[in-house]
Design brief:
This protein has 608 residues and is α/β, with parallel strands linked by helices. It has three domains: 3-240, Aminohydrolase, N-terminal nucleophile (Ntn) domain (Glutamine Phosphoribosylpyrophosphate, subunit 1, domain 1); 245-436, Rossmann fold (3-Layer(aba) Sandwich); 446-594, Rossmann fold, CATH 3.40.50.10490. 37% of the residues lie in helices and 23% in strands. The strands form five sheets. The protein has an eight-stranded antiparallel β-sheet. It has a seven-stranded antiparallel β-sheet with strand order 5-6-7-8-12-13-14. β9 (179-182) and β10 form a beta hairpin. The model has no long low-confidence stretch (mean pLDDT 93). The structure holds 6-O-phosphono-alpha-D-glucopyranose. 6-O-phosphono-alpha-D-glucopyranose is lined by residues 298-301, 345-347, 350, 353, 396, 398, 601, 603-605. The site of 6-O-phosphono-alpha-D-glucopyranose (G6P) has 15 residues, from α9.
Length: 608
Amino acid sequence: MCGIVGIVGNREVAPLLVDALKRLEYRGYDSAGVATVRDGKLDRRRAEGKLANLDRRLGEEPLAGHVGIGHTRWATHGAPTEANAHPHFCDGVAVVHNGIIENFAPLRTALIADGAVFHSQTDTEVVAQLLAACRKQGMAPREAMQQTLSRLEGAYALAVLFDDQPDMILGARSGPPLAVGHGQGEMFLGSDAIALAPFTDEITYLEDGDWVVITHDHHEIYDHSGQRVERKSQISQGAAYVVDKGNHRHFMEKEIYEQSEVVSHTLSHYIDFAEGRVKFDSAQIDFANLDRLAMSACGTAFYAGLIGKYWFERFARLPVEIDVASEFRYREIPLAGRMAALFISQSGETADTLASLRYCRDNGLTIGAVVNVRESTIARESDAVFPTLAGPEIGVASTKAFTCQLSVLAALALIAGRARGTLSDEDERRCVQALVEVPRLFNEILAAIQPQIETLSRELARFKDVLYLGRGTSFPLALEGALKLKEISYIHAEGYAAGELKHGPIALIDETMPVIVIAPHDRHFEKTVSNMQEVAARGGQIILVTDEKGAAATTLETMATIVLPVLDEIVAPILFALPVQLIAYHTAVFMGTDVDQPRNLAKSVTVE
Ligand code: G6P
């Protein structure tokens, strides 16, 4: 889960490498480094911590050269120290790496037995050592690469520089993505198209097992067996987006405020606003002939899927089998009968989600993917792609991608309901009308609740533990609320189905543990009120997130009651996500944490 970049340029590349790394910081940000080749010599600058530290280091000690590689790290093997930061050097070879070399331990032992001396604790260094050993035996760069790759196991993307090759970078992909960018007399490598957006929008994606040679004016791609292959180039959309914070303090805040617009874009892909109906032809999956739908995802995307499960089961009467991808992939679920599979991923690169997808594909299922990055591996390996049009999400804690995922899942559940004859025309029109109002409501609700939540967050920041409760589709939202809060404020938080309260968490309730209850006035409301009574009876403090009807119907004393308008059940989870996001955001801002890049996390998780 690191970001890598390489440039064979015709100008000084160190500032360009840093610029590209800034766009890759979402992949990891605990240390960074760049290396160049010049006059037959490799040189590098590396720094612990955020990219700003590397930038400063380069200001003090500039690095010259027109050809170079760069890296931003999310540590797997070895602490985030300068010695473990990439690029790793060995006898005229420089390597940056994203992913994990699973057999690094036996390789390292064998190399040490042959006299190699290691300077870091990383798995990456074995790649540099292997390449250097091949070169010492007289192999040319291509042969050394082929030979080295054949010895590596695991998931990796690599970029390699040699001191005696002033116009060449080698790249390789086995798992995590790697893209070639085509410039004017310059060529690029990057973990994604957004990293390369300032330089070019013409991109060629390597396929799994490919490796590539780039020089300033051309590229050659080889597959895992060493055969020359052609991969089509495409014009990436990544370049169309400007990645900056605008008037906002953090990307997360900007992304929360963008939701009205991006959800509107996303919905218009699936809904015919003029007709007031779902676009049936956007289905691409034969929902009418399914007995079961398998779904899987990680993190926030998983919670979107959990909400989707309620919708598919309610509106389309389609049973859904859902699990986090890290479990799904190893459960050996029998995948027989008339079944399709749907995967949800913002990045489209999450390793566990991709492995679950491949498991389903190997079992012959039709594969659908709800993804934000259309050029991603998950999108490319799916039969049907259902895009979320959220634009690049930079804040590590997902917000707009989540509500866009919900929008797609809601529309798909309606499409499935129509296909299966379980949704009346009238219900379809009612649900579509409710969805059409979502973008406007985003803005109205934001303006209405933001000041209250900002004040409330100051109080919340005093606590060490917070419990979130909800029923029905508010249960996954409770899970998402707890995840958001712990991710960015580091306050310990748990989400529970409200009905589970008395099966354990109630033991924790006292005045030191506020309980955030998400309870629109839906068919579960009365039951959730009973659970709130149980909390109140034990001295617990309640923050109630409800709608106008719910607020009018409860007399319980609360620490705060956040009131949304009365919403149709299909849009309630999409809009109730707003208070959940704002509570986490403002609490973290008040506590002074690094909201966009919380400690230990990364946005794109391309390792298991
Ligand atoms: C990481 C991110 C989360 C995200 C999850 C799944 O944990 O920090 O925000 O929900 O990965 O990522 P994906 O790209 O597959 O949606």
